[in-house]
Design a protein that fits this description.
By secondary structure, the chain is α/β, with parallel strands linked by helices. The chain has a single domain, classed as Bacterial phosphonate metabolism protein PhnH (Rossmann fold, 3-Layer(aba) Sandwich). Helix content is 23%, strand content 18%. The protein is built from four helices and nine strands. The strands form two sheets. The protein has a six-stranded mixed sheet.
Length: 205
């Protein structure tokens, strides 16, 4: 999508048509959720409206459309981001976190607690929010061990920039399974999936 404002040009890589880019991104996101703990490379994209990372933009272009409800945190709720995503995806914003199908979070340290988002119901667990959380890096933080479906025994991850209290929030979320939220962590280049079925073991020593 190209905005009429000549100061804003955010284009998908010329070598990839938009549909192919969306398909590649969807496969990457699906792999991230089916293999928790694995960092999956995001398909390349040239530019993203500040302060959105390139991987966050790729995920948003893949997942958002006019049929889903979306929420942007205050960091991403800029005119540049909203205008670009509206024009490119048809998405609308402004709903309460609990009403969102997708929540895009640019400042993890000030994100709402996970319980503020829609958890689905026992009859419709799919009617829950998927959170996309932008981080400075998917490695380099405090190591955490995870176990659950898609993991042979345990896997260690170390995303950088998650807020204090996130993992205790996650413990409560996982305990609610099959309801609960799913989380996709993103940095500049990749995805790391946290499906609600995954449980934290203990920080690695």
């Amino acid at each position: 999508m190209t905005l009429l404002d000549s100061t804003m040009h955010f284009e998908v890589e010329p070598s990839l048509e938009a549909a192919h880019h969306a398909q590649a991104t969807f496969r990457a996101i699906l792999r991230a959720f089916s293999r928790p703990g694995e960092i999956v490379a995001a398909p390349p994209i040239l530019h993203a409206p500040w302060p959105m990372s390139q991987s966050m933009l790729s995920a948003a272009l893949c997942l958002l459309d006019g049929e889903v409800s979306s929420w942007l945190d205050p960091t991403l709720r800029t005119k540049a981001v909203e205008d670009f995503l509206r024009l490119r995806t048809g998405a609308s914003f402004g709903c309460h976190p609990r009403d969102a199908d997708f929540a895009l979070i640019g400042d993890a340290n000030n994100m709402p607690n996970l319980e503020r988002f829609r958890a689905g119901t026992l009859l419709e667990p799919n009617r829950s929010t998927t959170l996309l959380i932008q981080l400075p890096d998917l490695v380099g933080g405090t190591p955490i061990s995870l176990s659950g479906p898609g993991i042979k025994t345990e896997v260690s991850i170390s995303p950088m920039g998650l807020p204090l209290g996130f993992w205790s929030n996650w413990d409560a979320n996982a305990a609610r399974f099959p309801v609960g939220v799913d989380v996709l962590l993103v940095d500049r280049k990749g995805f790391l999936g946290l499906p609600r079925s995954i449980r934290r073991s203990a920080p690695c020593s």
